[in-house]
Amino acid sequence: MDKPAFLITIDTEGDNLWQNNDNIATKNTHFLPRFQALCEKYAFKPVYLTNYEMALDPAYVEFACHVISRNAGEVGMHLHAWNSPPLTPLTDDDYRHKPYLIEYPNNQMHEKVDYMTKLLEDTFQTRILSHRAGRWAFNEYYASLLLEYGYQVDCSVTPGVNWQYSLGSPQGKGGTDYRYFPSQSYFIDPKNIAQPGLSTLLEIPMSIKYKHSTLINTFKTSYYKLRGQCHSLSVSWLRPSRKNLYQMKKIIDFSLAEGHDYLEFMLHSPEFMPGGSPTFITKKDIEVLYLDLEKLFFWLKKLVIGKTLSEFYLDKIMHNEKN
User: Fold this and answer.
1) In CATH, 5-322 is 3.20.20.370
2) Cα dihedral sign, 77-115-84-160
3) Whole-number Å distance between alpha carbons of 256 and 302
């Protein structure tokens, strides 16, 4: 790979899922063509990591099938356990608590992965090869299910982030602790997803950078330990959050300087719609978002090459075979 790959991952899900109710709309579907057109302008290929309600939206299905037919992007799987069939309540109000898939019994995890994989493959008439866990929660059994169903890529790891403080089930232990996971891509060890192994499942962690220096982070970690606390250190993500273009460029500079062979960008599909998320509320917010995206993509176009997750996977396989 001569240039690093630019991987655009979109968690494609219902409108404003930050709200706690079971009335999930999918109006954000109609705001995706604008983003797709921007990506194609710069020869970038989004991966639409699709969840249950979006797979049932005829307008989204038509849009995504058109993207696939032109090899202008990819559809992957994104599983929100609390509303993905088969439905078996885990808490007194799953739509409020949004339990993690890894909190369900293994047999229910298996049934949900089976259902979603078959739904997506039947709906989009293509193999589903890429995946991101709902609420970033991943473990060894989850990885074994992805391997069983032929997935090639997972992109659930968020290096440096500890999700244990974000509860799903009130009786649970929270999400996955990624503080000691690799920050570059690796084929996972199915017995320990935090380390490289010999499986066929490629982990592509999010592009994330600590906000503070190693010295400051060491001091903070020591301070928390003395107080008997355990906190995640502050990080910046390669994702727009209103007027953070400078920070996104810093993450890119850092990742390239570290020798990463990819950059992974993410956003949620409802964030392209005014009022679809807490971040981009008004039409003006959306225009600011697109202004930043235009500047970012223009700056990036000479540094990277746009690829889907499955295309990047093939590059890794070919590279490994040559070596």
Assistant:
1) yes
2) negative
3) 13
Spell out the domain ranges in the chain.
5-322
Q: How deeply is 127 buried, as exposed, middle or buried, from its count of CB atoms within 10 A (0-12, 13-18, 19+)?
A: middle
Token code pair at residue 116: 């979603």
**Residues belonging to the chain:** 323
What is the model's pTM?
A: 0.93
Distant-in-sequence, close-in-space partners of 159: CB < 8 Å, separation ≥ 6: 178, 179, 181, 182, 183, 205, 206, 208
Q: What is the pLDDT of residues 89-123, one digit of tens each?
A: 999 999 999 999 999 999 999 999 999 999 999 99
Alpha helix positions (H), the chain: 32-41, 52-55, 58-69, 94-97, 106-124, 140-148, 214-226, 245-257, 283-300, 309-322
Task: Point out which residues pair with 265 in neighbouring strands.
Answer: 8
Quickly tell me which residue has 């090899």 as its tokens: 71
Q: Give residue-wise pLDDT tens across range 175-226.
A: 999 999 999 999 999 999 999 999 999 999 999 996 644 444 444 444 444 5
Q: Rounded to whole angstroms, how far apart are CA atoms 218 and 49?
A: 35
For the beta carbon of residue 130, count every other beta carbon within 10 angstroms: 27
Q: Which of 208, 193, 304 is nearest to 247 (CA)?
A: 208
